[in-house]
Records
---
Amino acid sequence: MFPPLAYLQWIEGRPAAAEHDLGSSDLRRPPAGDPDDPVPSRLRGRSAPEYDRSLRERVAAEYDLDETNVLLTAGATHGGFLASATAAALARERDGGDDGPRPWALVEAPGYEPLVETPRGIGSRAARFRRPGPTYDLDPDRVAAAAADLAGPLAHVTVTNRHNPTGALTDRATLAATAEVAADRGGHLLVDEVYAPYTVREGGQGGSAETATSDGAFGGPTGAGLPATVTVGSLTKFHGLGGLRVGWITGPQAFVERARLVEHHVPALAAPSVALARRFFAHRDDLVADAREHCRRNHELLAAFLDGRDDLAGSVEPGSPFAYLEHERADGDAVSEAAWDAGVLVVPGRFFGLDDGVRVSLGRAPDDCAAALEAFGRVLDGL
């Protein structure tokens, strides 16, 4: 069974209806030109590349992998579905097939609802392990303790990096240690990395945002290439190209080959999206630099906003343009409802398992985000 996803039902239509959008986390620009033009505004006027490498080869090169370690997907949601289904299939094949016990998906908490419900829909059992506040760091020992309590095969351990909804960033060494925990039980580590590139370059303007790593894809940390590790990425969040629905998974060659067989059961990536994604990679450095500057400015706006409020608790992680924040007198639903009444969209933390606060995301243009924070500040003043 695939139950309705409460968060996606709640958020549907709200970003477009809100006067001030502090709920959407993708670094999106206002639409420009003909709304029926299939070319995203960020790619308009940019030349198509001469055919040199396929999109799969381009993605593989970004992660310093062989193309046999990459599977293109119709966005990150599609990639996460394929990764979870493939890990479950491998666990079943390893432990008795259809007659064996149902495998486990061990998923971080707090966390994004589909990461739990998609494995359940596929037929896996879901268990949780805690990323404890206030820092919400990933702790391999906590993962190991939770895995030890599971009776039956482990299909995968699932984490997000950056963590959704808090923005906490995990380094590659910690991801490697967590992957070892999953591998010891015969499973894989699945890392949703759609927010991993949300970093800034060292030495850039704004010292509060000096986090950047230069050893991963698009400048952010990655688990790609680690043993027993599968990563999910896309052009949606950091790159602001959600309309293309272009994503990918990386993983061991045997995992990718099995995922190709799973993909036969669901729609695949459309050829026009592939062509436009190749145009992105032809201008990759310029577009990534632009996105990083967008991210830096929004991070600084959010950090300054929190620093200026004595009624909010939380942390804007270095380089992150989104954060989980709690108000001293009102819970997440009360804050979100008051904001919505004033035309401001923020997301209740209950959709991530955190009832006391809200996720505030600065994805829109910096000037728009500055106005949105001013409006949100007036809401908070009135609580």
---
Amino acid sequence: MTPSGRLFVPSLPTLWPHMLVSKPRPGSLPPFSSPNVRYFYFARNAVWLTVKMLGLDNGEVLMPSYHHGVEVEALVDAGATPRFYRVGSRWDVDLEDVARRITPKTKALYLTHYAGFPGPAAEMRKLADQHGLVLIEDCALSLLSSDGAVPLGTTGDVGIFCLYKTLPVPNGGALVVNGPRSYSLPEPPAPPSASTFSHTVSALLQNLELRGGAVGRGLRGLVRTVGHGTVKAASIERVATGTQHFDRKHVDLGMSPLTKRIALAQDLESIVEKRRRNYFYLLGRLRDVSTPLFNQLPAGTCPLFYPMVVQEKAEVLARLRAKGIDAIDFWKRFHPACDAGAFPEVAQLRRSIVEIPCHQDLSPEVMADVASVVRDAVRSENRSKKRAG
């Protein structure tokens, strides 16, 4: 709890002031350790460029039926046609279904690693090689994760990453090109500095509320009110992150220098360790009130969040948010190009998965409070179901 007694648990990690002046550390994981990398404002920009760079436009790309939708929009805007394969109830890729759906029009296989959990990259690589296809690894939800000793994003022809979901940065996506072939990728221009400044201040204010209780909450509210008025009066374009749709006018935006500075100053190994610690705590405290999607955390996995299985999403989300936990409704909609009726397991996932934060900002004491609130919310949901039945 904060000193005021009110829980405040943001969905993403916050920015500590010292991170603005910390010295850079050598990057030990992709994309920071990758020799052939380009940084963008959004990961979706990297999807768009991948289609153009590898000549996938006017061809078909086999994608998972369990998707966000913005990556599909970027791929379609770049000129490729998505086709979809089955994903099971445990985020498991149906490799036989992938193989069945490959046709002469197929140019690439697209593999998404969900919330840090590794998908079958080696098996998809083998399948791609057998058919002479490109393999795209989408690691937007899996920055810093490995499959055992193999970092995610290094098996495919390209790896695509999102930085701001895992690190306390104002923006940032990355495209890593693997293998011996070299591509001449122009360095995209930096985004508007005012937009970067706005996001940075917001992350600092969230940290203030996380650490400062009622005083921090009041100051954050005051600064946000003044800031919103200033932004509006100055007609500053704030390029929002975490948006639901692809916007062509932002496709050429690069990552800000400030984002790179903050990202390179992070202790990546410590982040992985803290996220795993928090995930294990939730797993131990919540498994008896909701059957976990995963009973274990594979070696090397850096969990983005704890995937909570619920029956009534809206009800549980409302209870959690009322208690100060910024839980997220995870991927509830299919892209219109995908036939929802053909993938019932994915439809059920979209109805039942809630993101519970477990990021590096949350101490063991906070995680104990989070677990208690989540248990109460799920128990209340179960009681409501019994009364309704």
---
Amino acid sequence: MNVVILEPVSSGWKLIPKAKELNHTVIVLTYDQGERIIPAEFLRLADRIERVDTNDDQAVIDLAWKLDKELGIDAVIPGFEYYVPLSNRINHLLGNAGLNPEVVDHLRYKDLMRTALADAGVRVPRYRLVTDAEELEAAAAYVGFPLVAKPVDCSGSFNVRKADNHSELEEAYRRIAEMEVNDLEQTARGDVLLEEYLQGPEYSVEGLVAGETIHYFSITEKLLGPEPYFVEVGHIVSAPLDAEAEKNIHHYVSQVIKALGINMGPFHAEIRLTSTGPVLIEIGVRLAGDYICDLIYHAKGIDLYKLMIDSYLGNPLSLPEQTAQRVAGVRFFVRENLKRYDTVEGLEQLRALDGLIDCNLTIPTGQEIPEANSFMGRIGFFAVVGDDYDRLKETLLQGDRQIKFKQLTKK
């Protein structure tokens, strides 16, 4: 099979070796510049690399038509959330399996998602879309403080923050409205979504849709950094919830999936479990990022990379038999006010941990570290697997504490 992977990022990188392992011919479409550079260890595995501005929809469509005439394309798989609409529109044009092109924008833009769910009677936070500064005061009065301000077209908590008053809201609004591009250099809308602040623990729900059937693989516990931001500093697969809570979450997410017309592919639904039940923050019809897919594999033996490829190819899905469940977690190194570092202590001890899956620094020594208010400020991570939830959670906490970043000189 000839598989096109459109601009793989983060977990999308691993689709390349997985597709090769499954004996598919892999064609990667990438801009290969700026924030859209694929690590060489993954890119070199592709059978063919086509460099194109992946933020130019028409250029990508024209290239896909050309490749289909030359080779025959069996699937176009989005390598990141931002490319879900375009990938599925191309699949529709080529007659391949894919999401309904009439609903894909609801899965990309948070304001459209909120409206579609509200119109279907699915519970969502109070919200208002703000497209002009003059609308800000009335929108805030409707939603009420505290509230959350977020861009409609970003991911990874980028420029998302809680506001307790008008001064904080105006600062949050200004940052979003002045954005020219998002983190992958797409033109930003600049519109701001104000949402009711939800009290309660945060989880993500990972699974896969196959027609009328929804497979649930994990309710993942989120470890969050300090407010007013919502930086995810870790994840644990799976959260220790009782059967009734799991049932309620699955029922609610099923309503979300049905209301949004999701008919295929993996999903990553982020929710808050309030005192009156689960409420959606957002859902992406793509692979979870932040190493979650790998945690699911190590804890449960479920290969989401393979399942995504099979889903887009229209292949029968092969799910593993339920075996003894383990727990797995990841912790990201986030250090407020650290601008750069020259040395790091504690890595050798961390790499000697029992059950260690991976440990890596993603921002190297001497490089400027972005603000610790989104995923971009995470310096590195480590991931572990074990058999006891409490012990694993403590390992994540202690492992993070033992890593010391040192700045020897000031620049």
---
Amino acid sequence: MSTSGSTYGDIHRYEPARESTAAAIAIVLLALLEIVFVFMFSWGLVSGWALTADGNMFLGGLLAVVFIDLAFVLAIYRKEFLPDVMVVKKRRRKWEDLYVRGDQADGEQVESADVWDQVKRAVYPYYKR
């Protein structure tokens, strides 16, 4: 489904997620495997496996497997259960500065009498004029 709107924030393309059962089963199995690896890592820390060189490498490997497994769970979830949405964004030219317009490049002249009012507005934003 796509729309022809070109104003900022319009949805240009929307494709619903597949939501396959195989992906849901894979996420559940990977989550259970994640729990097992986290339990093994926690048990290794409590048991003092990190006191030996080999045990320290084993705990490092378990921690790496925990994060890799988590990455697979999140990748499958993003691919299968989140819709693909393209939103119209505001396009900016590469050579323009994002915050300063050309006529404001030299800054503004500040009067010495206005300095105190500007400080008060900066410190207290709801300052009444």
